[in-house]
Amino acid sequence: MEVVILAGGLGTRLAEETALKPKPMVEIGGIPILHHVMDIYGRQGFTEFTVCLGYLGAVIKRYFHDLVTLGDDLSIELGTGEVRRRPIPEARGLQWRVNLIDTGFQTMTGGRLKRLSSVLKGERFLLTYGDGVANVDVNALLAFHRSHGRLATVTAVRPPARFGALDLDGDTIRSFQEKSQLAEGWINGGFMVIERAVLNLIEGDETVLERDVLSQVAADGQLRAFRHEGFWQCMDTLRDVRTLEALWEQGNPPWRS
Question: Which pTM value belongs to this model?
Answer without folding.
Answer: 0.88
